[in-house]
Amino acid sequence: FFSPGFQVAPETKAVMKWLRSIPFVLSASLHGGELVVTYPYDYSRHPMEEKMFSPTPDEKMFKMLAKTYADAHPVISDRSELRCGGNFVKRGGIINGAEWYSFTGGMADFNYLHTNCFEVTVEVGCEKFPLQEELFTIWHENRDALLNYMEMVHRGIKGIVSDKFGNPIKNARISVRGIQHDVTTGN
After folding, report:
1. Known catalytic residues?
2. Mean pLDDT of 100-119
3. What positions constitute the catalytic site (predicted)?
4. How much is the pTM?
């Protein structure tokens, strides 16, 4: 997952442990500097290749999650190319992370590969470091999109895996035919 020789910071190790201890299923990482929603994989399967499409086995689900956010965001869904993020307009405001630019050690890839959590990265605005007076507008531009995205937690398979006596089975492996990515039940 990380490059050879990569040192993992203590706070990163703590977040990794936390993510493995709680059965999260959906998350979003909020960044600034663009107007686009990216989804895994962020690291290209061919590390020497830049801008190479690198889908997960759950590509359709990730596209749906990213599109849910992008379509509810008034600026990302705006078809105008006269703004930052104009190069993502024809893509509907979403892109596979590695196809935009490949990097190792991202949260979305970690979550997908090592937990049950599906994560997208939301570039919430044109400024990498917005001024304080811009935060209110950014919040309002993203509020409904965040709420729509959070509602997606109800999509997909859900229920209780139990034994013949009705007792929940901890860490049961769930497989879906045609998708080579299993998830496990929580505690």
Report:
1. 123
2. 92
3. 123
4. 0.89
